[in-house]
From TrEMBL:
Belongs to the LTA synthase family. GO terms for molecular function: metal ion binding. This is Sulfatase. GO terms for cellular component: plasma membrane.
Length: 616
């Protein structure tokens, strides 16, 4: 500490802590924006901390160092939270995340598995300075010298300049659609402040304007087209399987001759398979997939659907099928209160849900009983339901292949090639290999108890497992090897959809674009259930070939997937970036008209759901 003590500039905490925050902003920007020495961070982050420092200099003397250390701790915590949140979710954290702090902390092992040790360097100065000023005699003497008030005139001028620079960074960028671009232009700290004070009120569209005809026009649906396979599975049970973190590239994948998903591969050969199917979830991940699939509405503008929409009596697939003589049940081994699912299930109108209380603590890892237990006990319950004299709709939600994919060794079913061992991608593939085996046993049980032949199955992945921003260099190389080209956002969001038991149909690979919002209308078409009085934002994938899928949360606002590819806007449509579709993608050519229609669809969905009656 003699070096620090010997330099007079430490007596000037304004300068000393400015230098510290220059280094911390470099670290945060390097991780989030991929720029390790960003000159722009000096123009965005430093004016914000200068404004805070000026307040300290102007109004404090006796406890000046304490206030500087407090600001240092708080701003460092914001930078660290932004880094970790970005690595897990790919978005910039805001104060809204505090609303879901219990859910986020429940996946803390997943979050911190993505942390590189050097991220912790952001706290090093706090530890060193805390010890020096509190426990070291020279430090205590120096603290007394620091507690002197700055020159008020100079401090006031610097404060005005700093505040002006902050406003200069914020005001021109308020209209930016891309939240990451917005944070980069404003600065992380200014962006955090902006989100607190910004008016987020959405223009609500009158329900009279929200009609199926208006939605179909925006989506480019031709209602005169004769539905394909309409009522092909009429009277059958509907079983929807939601596979945890399952991405499309796993199907058919072999590593050194070993099939990763042999059971799903066999089913794919007998199914209607949609390789260009995409996730549509938000912060609620799995629970958001449950919401979108069962309502055919988009996720809310922020937060999880289980928090934003569960006070509503939601029109839903369980309610729709119950009106047509079906019994309904959903199965998940986690506690029903995780992500507020108890309220979600009430809002969706399920007859029954089966959670941790039903599945118990047998063979537990991650958040609940293993997929072996899930499928075995679910099979028994479905057999019981099949004796009730009416068809059933069951949604089964797997969970064993959950991030960070470190399954117990007794669940290893394949030997990874050496280059995959110890990697995030390797752990992911091994966990999905186990999940596939458990699912295969479920299929055999359903065939043995007579349910298989009397049911239509829709099998899809709930959301991505390998986000681009969570992968290190070696993982990205492995993904490039698997795809034979650079792993892109279109690949990342690509999940499969398989439909089996849809009448006497030949297996087909259908490359039209689809998303989770399309499952409800597709299922209704197969079962011969009318949607005449049911407003929905999806479409029957067996009838329509054009599609428009607005995306939220994991892609910046204004992003959408269309028949011609994936578009991510910059500050507006004009500076967008486009990617080919995951399968068979050609040069993308998404249009501004599609961009505007996608935004309008989101507005209509938000308006419609928020104006639904509250549940009793």
């Amino acid at each position: 500490m003699s070096f620090i003590n010997g330099k007079r500039w430490i007596v000037k905490p304004f300068i000393f802590f400015t230098l510290i925050f220059v280094l911390k902003s470099f670290l945060a920007w390097g991780v989030i924006f991929g720029d390790m020495l960003p000159w722009k961070s000096l123009l965005t982050e430093i004016p914000f901390v200068w404004a805070l420092f000026c307040i300290i200099e102007r109004f404090s003397s006796k406890r000046k160092l304490g206030y500087y250390m407090t600001v240092n701790l708080l701003v460092t915590a914001i930078f660290f939270a932004a880094i970790m949140y970005f690595k897990y979710y790919g978005v910039i954290v805001t104060y809204h995340a505090l609303e879901q702090v219990n859910q986020v902390t429940a996946v803390r092992n997943s979050v911190f598995s993505l942390m590189d040790p050097y991220y912790l360097l952001i706290f090093l100065d706090i530890i060193v300075l805390g010890y020096y000023f509190l426990r070291n005699k020279k430090g205590r003497d120096l603290k007394r010298k620091i507690n002197q008030q700055g020159r008020k005139g100079i401090v006031s001028v610097v404060f005005i300049i700093s505040l002006g620079l902050c406003l200069f960074n914020i005001l021109p960028n308020q209209a930016s659609m891309n939240e990451i671009k917005k944070a980069q232009e404003m600065g992380i700290l200014s962006y955090e402040a902006y989100t607190i004070f910004a008016n987020e009120k959405t223009d609500i569209v009158n329900t009279r304007e929200i009609t199926q005809e208006a939605i179909n026009t925006l989506k480019g649906i031709d209602p005169s087209v004769k539905p394909n396979l309409q009522s092909a599975a009429k009277g059958k049970n509907l079983i929807i399987i939601q596979l945890e973190s399952f991405q499309s590239f796993l199907l058919g994948l072999k590593l050194d001759g070993q099939e990763v998903t042999p059971n799903l591969n066999r089913l794919m050969e007998d199914s209607l398979y949609f390789p260009n199917f995409y996730q549509m979830v938000g912060q609620g991940n799995t629970s958001d997939a449950e919401f979108v699939v069962n309502t055919s509405f988009y996720i809310p503008p922020r937060g999880a659907a289980t928090m934003a929409y569960v006070d509503k009596k939601l029109p839903s697939l369980p309610r729709l099928l119950k009106e047509n003589g079906y019994q309904t049940a959903t199965f998940h081994t986690n506690d029903v209160e995780f992500w507020n699912r108890g309220e979600l299930y009430s809002s969706l109108g399920w007859d029954h849900y089966y959670d941790h209380k039903f599945f118990g603590d047998e063979d537990v890892f991650f958040f609940g009983a293993s997929d072996d237990v899930l499928y075995h006990k679910t099979s028994d319950k479905l057999k019981e339901m099949s004796t009730q004299g009416q068809p059933f709709y069951a949604q089964v939600i797997s969970m064993s292949a959950h991030h960070p994919f470190t399954i117990p060794e007794d669940k290893y079913r394949m030997k990874l090639p050496e280059r995959y061992e110890g990697t995030f991608v390797g752990d992911y593939i091994r966990s999905q290999n186990y999940a596939d085996e458990a699912f295969g046993q479920f299929v055999e049980e359903l065939k043995a108890n007579g349910i298989w032949d009397n049911s239509v199955f829709m099998i899809y992945g709930d959301h991505m497992g390998l986000p681009i921003y969570s992968l290190d260099h070696d993982d990205k190389e492995l993904m490039n090897e698997i795809y034979g080209l650079e792993y892109s956002y279109a690949h990342m969001t690509n999940i499969p959809l398989l439909i089996l038991g849809a009448g006497n149909t030949e297996p087909q690979v259908l490359e039209q674009v689809g998303g989770e919002i399309d499952i409800l209308p597709t299922a209704a078409g197969l079962l011969g259930v009318s949607l005449e009085n049911y407003l929905h934002f999806g479409q029957n994938l067996l009838t329509e070939t054009y599609n428009l899928l607005p995306e939220r949360y994991y892609l910046p606002s204004g992003s959408f997937i269309g028949t011609s590819g994936l578009l991510i806007p910059g500050n507006s449509f004009e500076d967008n970036t486009q990617y080919p579709l995951a399968v068979g993608g050609k040069k993308p050519a998404a249009t501004e008209d599609e961009y505007n229609r996608a935004l309008r669809l989101l507005q209509l969905s938000d308006s419609y759901v928020t104006q639904l009656p509250d549940k009793p």
